[in-house]
Specification:
By secondary structure, the chain is of the alpha/beta class. The chain is built from eleven helices and 20 strands. Helix 3 packs across helix 4, helix 7 packs parallel to helix 8 and helix 10 crosses helix 11. It binds pyridoxal-5'-phosphate.
């Protein structure tokens, strides 16, 4: 660490966001699908923790649509990029609908009641909406069995232009047989809806796992989230992606614990020999999950994997650095990402924490500075 750097400019715990890697991953998705398939980049939850502004400014002009979870996120996107269509993935609250209509965000319509409400809110220009069909997810959408009947009523409403049909895949990374059947069924339903006069709507159903596993069933557009950030929900695609986030912290204290000394709350870990212990400036309040306690989690220091010792605390963790030479305080530590020839993927942390890569990224908290490369 450069001692001349001021404390204010110094990051204790930060995430370096490689926007070049984001562009690389988008190109990998395009190459996999072919140029005819449009891409909606899913940037909900602060772009999966990567920071909404820089991410959407990088993607603007490169993707056909941006997907968010709710009205507030749609507004954040619009504040950064004016001209990319913004799709809201889930249902809005009734009170939010007027603002969605006024700002021309594209809602996912899941019921006739919603469609009637948007129809009443439409001005002289018809409102673009997408119909969401539930083909197996069991979360939102018009039941597939009712889709044709409901769509017929929606198409008769004034003020709406149905510009898209959507569905979602619950097991695209777990059950290929179900997913293949679901995609085929959805494709047939889309055909029936097109016969009602919906042509030519954009049709989208695939998330990252669907894109990787079923590129030939991608319809007109996909909704790519996780893979754009460099994490593949199906491991066969991981070599084609680059991690966008490198999450770092620093050593704040170095001590040698004697043999038989407990480390951290609960004293679940005890040294068996004199152990060089580094205390690090990150904890579960930053998003380094407490479930990583005692689960074989490692951090990278000087290009080597170092075991995390004992329980993760709110603001600090401890790592075994006995194998490393003496280091200055402030030494950089990688929690997620690459250092030298070693790399810790989000999937590795997720497996050890008993969760999924999506939650690792979205869990990286506001106390972690984002630094854009
Ligand atoms: C979050 C989300 C996506 C993106 O999923 P990934 O697995 O991150 O690619 C796609 N569609 C819907 C409806 C979502 O909620």
């Amino acid at each position: 660490m450069n001692p001349s750097r001021s404390a204010a400019a110094l990051h204790r715990t930060w995430a370096e966001i490689d926007l070049g890697a984001l562009r690389h991953n988008l190109a990998a998705v395009r190459a996999h699908l072919g140029a005819a398939v449009r891409i909606m980049a899913v940037v909900k939850a602060n772009a999966y923790g990567h920071g909404i502004g820089p991410v959407v400014r990088t993607l603007a002009g490169q993707v056909e649509m941006l997907g968010v979870a709710n009205l507030r996120e749609a507004g954040e996107v619009r504040a950064h990029v004016a001209d990319v269509p913004v799709f809201i993935l889930g249902p809005a609250l009734p009170e939010e609908r007027a603002a969605i209509a006024a700002q021309r965000f594209i809602p996912a319509i899941c019921s006739l009641e919603e469609a009637r409400a948007y129809s009443a809110l439409a001005g002289p220009e018809p409102l673009a909406v997408h119909l969401k069909i539930d083909t197996g997810m069991g979360r939102v959408g018009i039941w597939e069995s009712e889709a044709v009947a409901v769509a017929r009523e929606i198409l008769a409403l004034p003020g709406l232009r149905v510009t898209g049909l959507a569905s979602h895949l619950p097991v695209a990374d777990e059950d290929d047989a179900f997913t293949r059947a679901q995609l085929a069924h959805f494709h047939r339903t889309v055909g029936e809806l097109r016969a009602l006069g919906l042509a030519p709507p954009v049709v989208h159903v695939e998330n990252s796992a669907g894109i990787i596993g079923f590129p030939a069933q991608a319809e007109d557009m996909v909704r790519a989230g996780l893979m754009l950030y460099g994490s593949a929900p199906r491991p066969e695609f991981q070599p084609r992606l680059r991690a966008v986030m490198t999450w770092k912290t620093r050593i704040t204290l170095l001590r040698t614990a004697p043999a038989g000394h407990g480390i951290s709350y609960g004293r679940t870990f005890k040294t068996t020999q004199p152990t060089r212990v580094a205390t690090l400036a990150v904890g579960y309040a930053d998003g380094y999950q407490r479930h990583l306690s005692g689960r074989g989690a490692e951090v990278l220091i000087r290009g080597r994997r170092c075991p995390v010792l004992g329980r993760v605390t709110m603001d600090q963790i401890m790592a075994d650095v006995t194998a490393l030479p003496d280091m200055p305080l402030g030494e950089e530590v990688v929690l997620l990402g690459r250092q030298g020839t070693e790399e810790i993927l989000a999937a590795e942390l997720a497996t050890k924490a008993g969760t999924i890569a999506w939650e690792i990224f979205t869990g990286v908290g506001p106390r972690v500075d984002r630094v854009y490369l």
